[in-house]
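Appendix B, record 7
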Amino acid sequence: MADTQENGSGSDSKSARTRRRILDSAAQVLSNKGYAGLRLSDVADLAEVQAPAIYYYFSSREDLIEEVMWSGVAELRKHLEEALDKLPDGTTPLDRFSVAIEEHLRHELDLSNYATASIRNAGQVPQAIRERQVAEENAYGAIWADILRAAQSAGEIRGDIDVHTALMLVFGAMNWTSEWWDPERGDIDDLVSTAKAFILNGLAGS
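Structure tokens (predicted):
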């Protein structure tokens, strides 16, 4: 049957697509205008639905924003895990860390409004909206910490570096790029290569 989900009706599939379109639109508005600037009317216009229809899928403005904020980190974590799983056996921890840097930046800046929205608004939304996002951030950070500890154990980076502190500095630098990087004035490949050189040389330098 055309236009149906595997275990659902055509109306279910249409409803799921509408919900996703609302979420996509909210991610774009949140990324561009921030938490304070997000209006449901703007989301509705972009999603091509009537504003009251949003409440069929989300109980409130905050509920919609919470879903976007969580999705941004959840999809980023999934993206990284898939990229790391594709690496050949025997890939060194430092090479895995290099891949993580690249995938984070490309996903944040080029592939996902959700990631940009989550990163830009993490310090703006109320803590109640952040709870589920924070749990995802911790899971995402644990992936990076495991790789960096493995690199340290293998002697690929300096032994006197505190892993947690190093990661906070790395995330701070990478996440800030969403505020200043302009794709019309610089190529993302150059940004990625510069970021990897800057971070990896700093970790491995004597």
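Remarks on this record: Residues 76 and 107 are 7 Å apart (CA to CA). Residues 10-37 form the longest helix (28 residues).
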